[in-house]
Specification:
Elements: H1 2-8, H2 10-37, E1 42-44, H3 46-54, E2 58-64, H4 65-68, H5 73-88, E3 92-96, H6 101-108, E4 112-116, E5 120-122, E6 128-130, H7 131-145
Parallel strand pairs: 2-3
Antiparallel strand pairs: 1-4, 2-4, 5-6
Helix pairs in contact: 2-6, 3-5
Length: 146
């Protein structure tokens, strides 16, 4: 009962909201740094993020709340499935408020983005693989050419 009373306090609610907003801003900053310095570890757009989730590569998944409120039921379901897949591999999932600056920034990047635990690259076959597998494939391809 006491905890419930404390959680109703407007000052406590404001502090919790600030904490969430701070976490979102920090995640967006980390995403942009990764995108600039290690682009094979920062994905955005549904298809790229989905493939990263399929490979268990997501460390932090960022999704706007607008995608969960989409009028189209299939759209909502695919993002719920994406979140569930990411959580299944112990990814941190952040749902950004579209009313906050960080949520607006994420919405400009299609509304979904991920910071990966390890690099993934797009092969010419449009399949994702880890950078390590790609290096092995390249050395194998070089041996075939010799």
């Amino acid at each position: 009962g006491a905890l419930e009373e404390v959680m109703r306090d407007p000052q406590i609610k404001a502090r919790l909201a600030d904490t969430k907003a701070t976490q979102e801003v920090k995640a967006m900053d980390e995403f942009y740094q990764m995108l600039n310095n290690k682009p094979d570890r920062a994905f955005y757009g549904y298809e790229d993020v989905r493939k990263a989730a399929e490979n268990g590569a997501i460390g932090t998944l960022m999704v706007t709340d607008e995608l969960f409120r989409a009028a189209d039921v299939q759209t909502r379901r695919k993002y719920i499935r994406l979140v569930e897949d990411a959580k299944a591999t112990n990814a941190d999932v952040l749902v950004f408020s579209s009313l906050h600056v960080s949520g607006e920034q994420l919405q400009q990047l299609t509304g979904v983005a991920a910071i990966l635990n390890f690099p993934l690259i797009l092969d010419s076959d449009t399949e994702y693989s880890s950078a390590e597998e790609s290096d092995q494939k390249e050395s194998f391809d070089e041996e075939l050419c010799m």
